[in-house]
């Protein structure tokens, strides 16, 4: 996932990123400090600083060709000072508090700081280097202190509370009422009702968590970068030509001509684990992947996790909650840890049963091949692929030949056009931060521009792993007709010059997922920035993205866009049918991988007294209690679990499963009409979901779209767990 929130409400050390990830899971740096040279350079005259000039670019997009690293620190310092002045003007007003002079004024305050922050934190995730990482370690606690000062400003809260307490007589419209409730609640949840001594303690906790979160993300990136599995041609047995080419390109990028390199980017390591016939090398790759942040080196994250879990528990109790999980979920659709756990355990038991069936098939395959060794975690994907091929005549290498990036981009744009009347016109005149980034102008059905869409699809050493959506600007109408600038990130292997980019079917689904988030931002149609786009709870934000995934799986979409990268022939109908038949294969494995991570997340954050936390032992104890098969590990082990330790999903990783109930049930609305682009259903999808931001109760929004409450039937059916 990730994300999303407006700075008028809070910048808590980072701009949120949505998707599968996400608050900035910050890239991590060598342990350097901002140098004296940098400090001197950062004192550039502000008149030369691009953040204090008008951006004369198309759509007012960031002038990346003008922005230097040394511009950020003075821009942060000046914009924080400006924001503080704007807040002081609100608190010192001689007029009685009203919605307009307090709540709306807060929405408009901090625009400059929002602009700087969005550029900076997007770049720390994509263009990281030692200087940017050192600067991030400096800036993140500065922002946390700044945010604490505003959140705990007694005079400001007094005005907010006055407006809130007199709301019934204020004649507010529904969106204004929603914003007022959210602003008031955010103050209370961040300590406005605490004593002065308690607020000081809370501020200290928040600042320390911010520092630890930044360091966790940087450690994860740096430990991942430190690992490379360098191979000779004789080590490539089992790999397809496309996979060999990707490994050769990775080696060339590291000046290892004639060699092949497997990295810990998912697009590199997962196919290797799936296809390499070299068990010894699979073991090395798997252990490198599983042990990121857990290598007892300078990038080790275990002590950081222990301290963060302890601080989160203390913060929750300070705010009057039993534990961090109760604090987080009190503000979500699930509303309580018990509800979230109930969902996870409902899918856990049938997933265990299905995984046992999958394991028996794998062991039969191993026995047929005369394999003597026991099934280990680094064997599962390899033999599962053989079972898939034997049972369903499916070869993932063959399938990938039909999923070429350009065709998949055309596919996701086509769906947006059919559903919402959107057109995507590529622009080559807009500055980008890396030469591989592409930009499209997004137009509605009348030809009017509604925003910009940036696509950054390739892995590189300066970029964190995973896939996510974020924004350089969010939609709003309060400060004029402000059009969104949205970005999608992925980590595909960049092919050699002149070659096409092939992706797995899973990558294609991820491409659609992140684009679903992007549309949630692009189609936002609200007045107030705090309520715009993806600025909603975790267990709602994934729904629009996961619903969009379903479109690429439909036979008519595969026939139209899944074309062979060499011949341009459409995917054969027989292959499409086999893909459909195999759609629930290995779902026991996939469900356990995910749910194990969610269960550990919930377990950490339901602790109330955290002492001497042994991270590895804790993971093992929790998952042994639930009977996790030893051959399947968590999708994200704690030491690189950026969603919860460097992002916005702490005690909320369950949200992907919660949203899957909604998306599976919701997509059935199209299937029931026997038209995946049914205009009436698409109009409801736009009106109640994609355009609404946080302006409507989520259950009310879902029922407005679907006509009834959701059920779990479609989720269990789609995963083969019914």
Automatic annotation (TrEMBL):
Pfam families noted in UniProt: Peptidase_M3
CDD domains: M3A_DCP
GO molecular function: hydrolase activity
Enzyme class: hydrolase
Cofactor details (free text): Binds 1 zinc ion.
Signal sequence coordinates: none
Region of interest (Disordered), residue spans: 22-46
EC number: 3.4.24.-
Keyword Flavoprotein found: no
All copies of domain Peptidase M3A/M3B catalytic, residue ranges: 274-720
Keywords: Hydrolase, Metal-binding, Metalloprotease, Protease, Zinc
Membership in a protein family: Belongs to the peptidase M3 family.
Name the UniProt record assigns to this protein: M3 family metallopeptidase
UniProt source species: Pseudoalteromonas spongiae
């Amino acid at each position: 996932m990730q994300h999303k929130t407006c700075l008028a409400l809070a910048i808590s050390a980072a701009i949120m990123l949505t998707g599968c990830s996400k608050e900035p899971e910050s890239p991590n740096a060598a342990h350097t400090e901002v140098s004296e040279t940098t400090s001197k350079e950062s004192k550039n005259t502000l008149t030369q600083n691009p953040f204090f000039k008008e951006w004369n670019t198309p759509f007012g997009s960031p002038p990346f060709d003008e922005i230097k690293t040394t511009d950020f620190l003075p821009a942060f310092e000046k914009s924080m000072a400006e924001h503080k002045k704007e807040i002081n003007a609100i608190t010192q007003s001689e007029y009685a508090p009203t919605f307009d002079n307090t709540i709306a004024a807060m929405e408009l305050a901090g625009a400059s700081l929002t602009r700087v922050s969005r550029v900076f934190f997007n770049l720390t995730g994509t263009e990281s280097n030692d200087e940017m990482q050192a600067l991030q370690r400096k800036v993140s606690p500065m922002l946390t202190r700044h945010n604490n000062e505003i959140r705990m400003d007694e005079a400001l809260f007094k005005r907010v509370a006055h407006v809130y307490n007199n709301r019934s007589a204020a004649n507010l419209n529904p969106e204004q009422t929603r914003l007022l409730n959210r602003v008031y609640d955010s103050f209370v949840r961040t300590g406005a009702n605490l004593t002065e001594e308690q607020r000081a303690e809370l501020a200290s906790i928040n600042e320390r968590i911010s520092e630890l979160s930044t360091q966790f993300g940087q450690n994860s990136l740096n430990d991942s970068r430190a690992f490379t599995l360098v191979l000779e041609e004789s080590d490539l047995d089992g790999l397809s030509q496309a996979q060999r080419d990707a490994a050769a390109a990775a080696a060339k990028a590291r000046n290892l001509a004639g060699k092949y390199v497997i990295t810990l980017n998912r697009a590199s390591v997962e196919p290797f684990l799936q296809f390499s016939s070299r068990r010894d090398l699979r073991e090395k790759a798997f252990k490198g992947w599983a042990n990121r942040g857990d290598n007892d080196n300078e990038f080790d994250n275990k002590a950081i996790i222990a301290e963060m879990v302890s601080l989160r528990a203390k913060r929750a109790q300070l705010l009057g909650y039993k534990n961090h999980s109760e604090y987080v979920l009190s503000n979500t659709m699930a509303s309580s840890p018990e509800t979230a756990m109930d969902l996870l355990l409902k899918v856990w038991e049938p997933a265990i049963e299905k995984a046992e069936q999958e394991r028996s098939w794998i062991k039969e395959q191993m026995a047929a091949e005369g394999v003597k060794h026991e099934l280990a975690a680094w064997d599962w994907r390899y033999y599962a692929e053989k079972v898939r091929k034997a049972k369903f005549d499916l070869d993932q290498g063959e399938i990938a030949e039909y999923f070429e990036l350009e065709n998949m981009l055309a596919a996701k744009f086509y769906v947006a056009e059919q559903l919402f009347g959107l057109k995507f016109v590529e622009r080559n005149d807009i500055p980008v931060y890396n030469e591989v980034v592409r930009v499209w102008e997004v137009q509605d059905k009348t030809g009017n521009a509604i925003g910009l869409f940036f696509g950054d699809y390739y892995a590189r050493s300066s970029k964190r792993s995973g896939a996510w959506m974020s924004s350089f600007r969010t939609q709003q109408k309060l400060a004029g007709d402000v059009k969104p600038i949205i970005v999608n990130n992925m980590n595909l292997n960049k092919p050699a010059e002149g070659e096409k980019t092939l992706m797995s079917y899973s990558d294609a689904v991820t491409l659609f997922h992140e684009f679903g988030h992007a549309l949630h931002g692009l189609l936002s149609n609200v007045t107030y920035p705090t309520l715009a786009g993806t600025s909603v709870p975790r267990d709602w934000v994934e729904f629009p993205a996961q619903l969009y995934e379903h479109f690429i799986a439909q036979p008519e979409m595969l026939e139209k866009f899944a074309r062979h990268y060499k011949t341009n022939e459409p995917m054969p109908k027989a292959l499409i049918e086999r893909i459909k038949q195999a759609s629930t294969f290995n779902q026991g494995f996939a469900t356990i991988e995910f749910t194990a991570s969610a269960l550990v997340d919930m377990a950490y954050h339901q602790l109330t007294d955290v002492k001497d936390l042994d991270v590895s032992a804790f993971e093992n104890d929790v998952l042994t209690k639930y009977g996790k098969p030893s051959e399947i590990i968590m999708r994200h082990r704690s030491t690189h679990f950026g969603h919860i330790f460097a992002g916005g999903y702490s005690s909320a990783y369950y949200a992907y499963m919660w949203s899957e109930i909604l998306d599976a049930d919701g997509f059935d609305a199209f299937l029931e009409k026997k038209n995946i682009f049914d205009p009436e259903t698409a109009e409801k999808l736009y009106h109640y979901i994609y355009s609404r931001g946080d302006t409507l109760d989520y259950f009310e929004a879902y029922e407005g779209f679907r006509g009834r409450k959701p059920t779990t039937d479609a989720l269990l059916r789609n995963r083969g767990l019914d």
